Amino acid sequence: MYLDSHLRVLFLILGQIVKPYDTETWKSTHNILSVDEFHFHQLFGNLQAHVGYLEEFFIDEKKFFDPKYDYDFTNFSDTAECMRGDEPYERPNGWYRMALKVKGKYPDGDTWLGTKGWRSHSVAGEWPVSYHGTSLGGARGIIKTHYKAGARKKYGRGIYSTPDMCVAKKDRYAQIFTSNTTGKSYKVILQNRINPELRLICTDPIYWVIRFMEGLSASTKKQLVERAIRPYGILIREI
């Protein structure tokens, strides 16, 4: 079997063949590690805990995750300028991103996501990136339903996020938790795209907010949220 140079290195490290997910099931065959499983191995240690870990964190892997779009930033240190939605984009260096299943999810199409592949420039119609540090339970609730306005009201009631990873990862936002599966401690941050037409940049520009009027019905709030801010990745980092 032919292995490119990257897979040869992984083969030497693991003593097993590493190959991409099957294009039909996005799962690897028995006793063969996929590239994503390799990264889970590096992050969580025990490959047998992979399914249990995702069930512990987010309940239903097939429903909520799209592993072919995962990306490992854990050893990434590039600080080159990058843009999304014609605004600066800070890549989440040091974190592992598990992609959420958002392709085709919204009625206005996928233009807000931009084009796939590695790039540093913006494309027409895509939205800027923001981050939202939260608790494990908070992340689970947002992924299963949608963002909801929190208790923070410094700049008005609404959904707060930031373009700055240093802000998002602060302990008062990204709360440390311990996995029952691995026994290790982690933080979790949601990576979003945010609609620039519905976002308010606060007086302190490291905070962005989607404001809510009082008295809106639950269905109206849901529609507003889904037009305004869309999580597309879960960022995980061992502490």
TrEMBL record:
This is Trigger factor. It comes from the Eukaryota.
